[in-house]
Specification:
Number of strands: 2
Radius of gyration: 12 Å
Order of helices and strands: HHEEH
Number of domains: 1
Distance between the termini: 38 Å
Strand content: 5-15%
Bound molecules: iron/sulfur cluster
Helix content: 40-55%
Amino acid sequence: MVDKAEYFQNMYDYISNLDETIKTNQPLYEKRLMICKNCDLLTDGMCKACGCFVEMRAAIRKNSCPYEKWVAATE
Ligand code: SF4
């Protein structure tokens, strides 16, 4: 059984070790997360629309918001 803190640490480790070729650059990553932070569908770091932890979803460049709210976020 993995507790919440350990789960999040594993997720942050996973994100930091993502291959640079698929990873979102830091400025775009932060813009995506700011949009999520202001979204009504965000609950405890998870998107109610897709069921993902948004930090994980936002970290991969090709991913998108299911409601296309990230479209406004450009590099
Ligand atoms: S991925 Fe989109 S729908 Fe989900 S929390 Fe972020 S902005 Fe909202």
